[in-house]
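Incident review: delayed structure delivery

Summary: a single-chain prediction request sat in the queue longer than the usual turnaround. Root cause was a stuck worker, restarted by the on-call engineer. No data loss occurred. The affected request and its eventual output are reproduced below so the record is complete for anyone auditing the incident later.

Affected input:
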Amino acid sequence: MSEQQNKGEKQYISRRDFLKGAGILGTFAFAGPFFGEPLQQIMRGNVWEDDLHGIGTANEDYGAGDIIYSTCEQCNTHCTIKTFVKEGRKGQPYSSLVRKIAGNPYSPVTTQPFGPLDYATAVAVAAKGKATLAVEGRGYRGGRTCLKGQAGIQTAYDTMRIRTPLKRVGPRGSEKWISVSWEQAIDEIVNGSSDLGTPGLKSMWAFAPKEKVMGDWEKVKKGEMTQQQFTEKYKDVLIDTKHPDLGPKSNQIACLGGNRRDFMRDRIWLQGVGSINFDDHGSS
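Output delivered after worker restart:
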């Protein structure tokens, strides 16, 4: 057969050759990204050293007006933190977005081992930090936070987060709930719920000073006051007039507050509500 005839014939690729070619292309496609950076280093003549950290331009700068100082609620340590907050996009469910969480630069808790800023440091200066990121690896714009603290962003914007009060709509144990407004929740907690048949705190609450009650109880034990007189005097405020040690009806209201909530326990619960039942629950 002549060379001209061979040129005129159609050329076919065998199945084996096709699979070989596809395998080679796939290998290059998969391995290419792994060799990109080393090849760039060779071309730059900088084979053994990486670029200095912190000299890139891919950042999202902020000032003092974009910062909110707060407390981390991811565990019972309650570290002080600073958050970088950015305005949310129009039409989205959040009016603002937390972009970064760091430790409070003024706090000795989150600034070890280099130490906190002086309290006299202006917030605008604290927001900018120092121009030492590429040299020291830190810009000192904020303190340190643990990984659990950093996850506060995910906690805040978790799609399964309960963002409104829930009200039971079925019998206890039915696990049927509906979302209600804060106004409705507060009203039914204070005044009671007619559809659930639960009393409100207003009808449950009554208070009498311990010293006065126990002083009269001593009179009962000494025979200076009858039990009937004592009951008549305190029937509307005590849980049980025959057991005044149980305290006033306000002790029927309990709070699950958490560790390190002394300010809430003392000021709000003991002095405000008048109940001694505040549970400092722990966590593991």
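Verification: The chain is about 35% helix and 10% strand.
Action items: add queue-age alerting; document worker restart procedure.
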